[in-house]
Amino acid sequence: MLKNAFIPFGAYWSTPFCKWQGNYANLHAMKFAAEIAQKALAQRKIDPANFDGIYLGLTIPQPCCFYGAPWVAGMLGAPGIAGPVIGQACATSATSIGLAGKDIETGSSKATICIMCDRTSNGPHLYYPNPFGPGATGDSEDWVWHNFGHDPFANNSMIQTAENVAKEAGIKREEQEETALLRHNQYQDALKDDCAFQKRYMVTPVEVRDPSGRKVLATVKSDEGVFPTTREGLAKLKPVLEGGTITFGCQTYPADGNCGMVVCTREKARELSKDKKVEVQLVSYAPARTKKGFMAAAVVPAARLALQRAGIAVKDLKAVKTHNPFAVNDIYMSREMDIPVAGMNNYGSSIIWGHPQAPTGMRATIELIEELALVGGGYGLFAGCAAGDSAAALVVKVSV
């Protein structure tokens, strides 16, 4: 349990997410994240001089990422701080926030900025020299698609892990479609009143410029890639795997974008919060792993451990958010933890607005905080699975 780690209310942000090969496809993820962080901090009247540490979440290499967090810190206006790059697939955000919280807890930092950025579009194609290969031919991989499609330990694809859980737990296609449709309808609530909910944290508009920086190629005002979803449309789709139950309508899609969040002491949080009456405490963080080839089930042990470390139970939660690359994830979690499927992911989730990897969990955590503020405070849980049959979870408490 963490007792001294806090998140200033409003000291977090996200870009809209754009689908794979969309409007962000040619932006350098780290430069883009630093540009957005500068803009967001200025809007929130937060001086980068407040920070004494940084965590950079990045899972897909970008040019010059060798220089990592110190480079991003310099670009956003905090050249005197340093920190590591965290890459834990979909658990990157939760782990970065958890590590930042531990830094505060131990007194090694008073204010840490966490920047999460990834670009699944145009990911690197890597060549590894292998003098022992046939004719000295090297080895190669497509960083994004090869890793999505093959776990070298479990020897299966990510979608196969969800099919394994669906088969073992008896989760039918029809239940998955109902859940996907529910999440789509919940997302519509985030768009009401001219996207009032998203405007609480989202940095818009985002101008996408050409390499010279002079010409505006596109202006992104909202998530790009959200597909119209109906019960009839879902029923027409074929399963992705032969003999399977999961269609493209019941899973997320690769995307691009970035997020940021400040984690600090209580005193610093009061100073930096946009509303001094609202307090956001980071209560616990927990990683977990499930059996080989069952990634979609890993969210449950992570969530249970985070609740245990927080000293609370499911009944104490006022809001729940998940990273759900497959509808199977939420159905399984609902059954195992006695949380109604309709009782989580208000305002949508990653199955609807996409999955840029490192930023995904942070956006969900930001929405969790904002939802808790709207309902008058209380405990909230974020949990999401990650590559390697793993998962991570966070518990936050909002006091209004």
Shape verdict: globular
Number of strands: 14
The CATH topology of the largest domain: Peroxisomal Thiolase, Chain A, domain 1
**What kind of sheet is the major sheet?**
6 strands, mixed
Taken as a percent bin, the fraction of beta residues is 15-25%
Quaternary state, please? single chain
Structural class by SSE content: alpha+beta
Whole-number tally of structural domains: 2
CATH class of the largest domain: Alpha Beta
Residue windows where pLDDT falls under 50 for at least 5 positions: none
Question: Helical element count?
Answer: 12
CATH-defined superfamily of the largest domain:
Thiolase/Chalcone synthase
List the helices and strands and how they pair.
Layout (H helix, E strand, L loop, with lengths): L11 E3 L3 E2 L9 H15 L9 E5 L10 H9 L8 E2 L5 H15 L4 E9 L5 E4 L10 E4 H7 L8 H12 L3 H23 L10 E4 L6 E5 L10 H6 L18 E10 L1 H7 L6 E11 L9 H12 L6 E7 L3 H11 L12 H4 L6 H15 L3 E9 L3 E10 L1
Parallel strand pairs: 3-4, 3-5, 12-13
Antiparallel strand pairs: 1-10, 2-10, 5-10, 6-7, 8-9, 11-14, 13-14
Helix pairs in contact: 1-2, 3-12, 6-10
How would you portray this structure in words?
- The chain has helices at 29-43, 68-76, 92-106, 143-149, 158-169, 173-195, 231-236, 266-272, 299-310, 327-337, 350-353, 360-374, and strands spanning 12-14, 18-19, 53-57, 85-86, 111-119, 125-128, 139-142, 206-209, 216-220, 255-264, 279-289, 317-323, 378-386, 390-399.
- It has 400 residues and is of the alpha+beta class.
- It has 2 domains: 12-124 and 204-225 and 252-272, Peroxisomal Thiolase, Chain A, domain 1, CATH 3.40.47.10; 158-197 and 278-395, 3-Layer(aba) Sandwich (Peroxisomal Thiolase, Chain A, domain 1), CATH 3.40.47.10.
- Strands 1, 2, 3, 4, 5 and 10 form a 6-stranded mixed β-sheet that branches.
- β8 and β9 (216-220) form a beta hairpin.
- α1 packs parallel to α2 (68-76), α3 (92-106) crosses α12 and α6 (173-195) packs across α10 (327-337).
- The two termini are 21 Å apart.
